[in-house]
Design a protein that fits this description.
This protein has 88 residues and is mainly α. It has 4 helices and no strands. α1 (14-33) packs across α4, α2 packs across α4 (63-87) and α3 packs across α4 (63-87). The model has no long low-confidence stretch (mean pLDDT 80).
């Protein structure tokens, strides 16, 4: 029998909660592996929602540097997360 996510106590189904926890751990672990300059850009962009110009101002670097760090900082962790997901 298929049960919908709605109606389970606490919201999400247990299997969905487990997947969300595993994804959170994978992302947190990947961020922890990054050098500070890359982690800062990713957090400011993806968590805090700042645009490139705002991040550049906050970090006192050119916007091009922000874009470069964002690209470089996300390519490695993305591959690591994909490998983790592929194992499951």
């Amino acid at each position: 029998m298929h049960r919908r996510a709605i109606g389970w106590a606490g919201g999400a189904r247990p299997d969905e909660s487990l997947v969300q926890r595993e994804q959170h751990l994978a992302v947190t672990g990947a961020l922890a592996e990054l050098e500070d300059e890359y982690r800062a850009v990713i957090v400011l962009r993806d968590v805090e929602g700042f645009d490139y110009e705002q991040i550049a101002e906050i970090l006192e670097v050119p916007a091009g540097t922000v874009k470069s760090r964002l690209h470089s900082g996300t390519s490695g962790p993305a591959r690591a997360i994909e490998k983790t997901a592929a194992k499951d």
